[in-house]
Write a structure and sequence with these properties.
165 residues, alpha/beta, 41% helix
Length: 165
């Protein structure tokens, strides 16, 4: 069964990856094969496979994963051949398997992730968004810094010497 997929966009720290991982965990508990990878790691693995002559096998393996979660799409612009590799993977999975994508880019900015070939970007993004749930998360970062404790332990942690014996 193909679940189509979903796309989560929003600012840093609003919970996109956390939500995608939670959906992945739910899928695993239902017996669905899931792979979670950053976009950069995914493209690096395809590039490494190309270098060893195993590109087609790697692409075929990734295309068959029931749910592929691609984290941090567009965090760094993809250069050739990574942009072509990602397109090949998306095209192979299109309407065959579910894909979830997280991105800090607003949906209308997704073409910036593939800046060297606008046509390739449009084709890839069109497939990613077709029949997918597109959810934009808003709000402040959930990664709040911890407040330092007060007292002598805080002075020591900050490099100050404690005068307590």
């Amino acid at each position: 069964m193909v679940l189509n997929g979903g796309n989560f966009a929003g600012l840093v720290g609003v919970g996109k990856s956390h939500l995608a991982q939670a959906l992945g965990h739910c899928a695993v508990r239902q017996g669905i094969d899931v792979l979670f990878s950053s976009c950069a790691q995914l493209c690096a693995s395809l590039n490494a496979a190309r270098a060893t002559g195993a590109y087609e096998r790697k692409l075929s393996t990734l295309a068959r994963v029931s749910l592929l979660i691609i984290d941090d799409f567009g965090l760094k612009p993809l250069r050739p051949p990574a942009d072509e590799d990602l397109h090949d993977l998306i095209a192979e999975r299109y309407e065959q398997a579910s894909t979830i994508v997280t991105s800090n880019l607003d949906f209308k900015e997704w073409d910036q992730a593939l800046p060297n070939n606008r046509l390739l970007a449009q084709a890839s993004i069109d497939r990613l968004r077709h029949n997918a749930y597109c959810i934009e998360l808003e709000g402040r970062s959930l990664r709040n810094p911890k407040v330092a404790p007060t007292g002598a332990s805080a002075r020591v942690a900050n490099g100050s010497k404690s005068t307590h014996s």
